[in-house]
Amino acid sequence: MSYFASCKRRPSARLVAGRLFPKPWQQSPRERAVEVVSAVPARSYLGMGLALQRLTAVDRLDRIRSKTLIIAAENDYTPLAEKRALAARLRAALVIVRGSRHGTPFDSVAVTNASLSALLSDQALPPVDRWVCDGPRYLSEFPKASRRKFEPRSREPASS
Predict the structure, then answer these.
(1) Most buried pick, 42, 53, 65, 103, via CB within 10 A?
(2) Domains plus CATH for the chain?
(3) Burial 101-121 (b: 16+ CB within 10 A, else e)
(4) Hey, which residues does 70 pair with through a beta bridge?
(5) What would the mean pLDDT of 124-150 be, rounded to a whole number?
(6) Torsion 104-107-108-113 (CA) sign
């Protein structure tokens, strides 16, 4: 992808990233989201969105027999009522992360990891008072060196 094409999508990427990570202390994940979103070719990004609109497994949900956990953001794009209905249908545990938006695995690492660990180890979920978006202190614990530059995968076949 050319530098020019990336720059043309940067304003859209900034808009998306700003909605995902609006708090001042979320600058680092916001910048990372801009980098990643602007690196994806527009056609691929739009195609993915259209495919997700058509994707449905509602008619097969009754086949799920394992313990299920839904981690939902309080301020996501879809209403909490839909998530509650889905959790009831699946007989799933539901964790609603207060203060989080659509990027819950990224802005709420502590509760996401604790909830997944509890599910996988057959333990109780973390207490409800811990179901909150990570604060600035949590993000500052991670060294900036761990963030690597995003390189989109080439669509060219690998040479043998």
Answers:
(1) 103
(2) 1-55 (no CATH), 57-142 (3.40.50.12670)
(3) bebbebbbbbbbebbeebbee
(4) 94
(5) 71
(6) positive
For the whole model, what pTM was predicted?
Answer: 0.74
Contact 119, 93 (CB under 8 A): yes
Q: In whole angstroms, what is the distance from residue 111 CA to residue 67 CA?
A: 18
Q: What is the mean pLDDT of the chain?
A: 82
> pLDDT tens across 7-41, in order?
567 888 899 899 989 988 888 888 888 888 888 88
Spatial separation of the C-alpha atoms in residues 93 and 67, rounded to whole Å: 8
132, β-bridge pairs: 98
- C-alpha–C-alpha distance, residues 56 and 104, integer Å: 22
- Residue 122's Cα: distance from chain center in Å? 24
What is the C-alpha end-to-end distance of the chain, expressed in Å?
24
* Residue indicated by tokens 């949900």: 61
Region 109-128 average pLDDT: 96
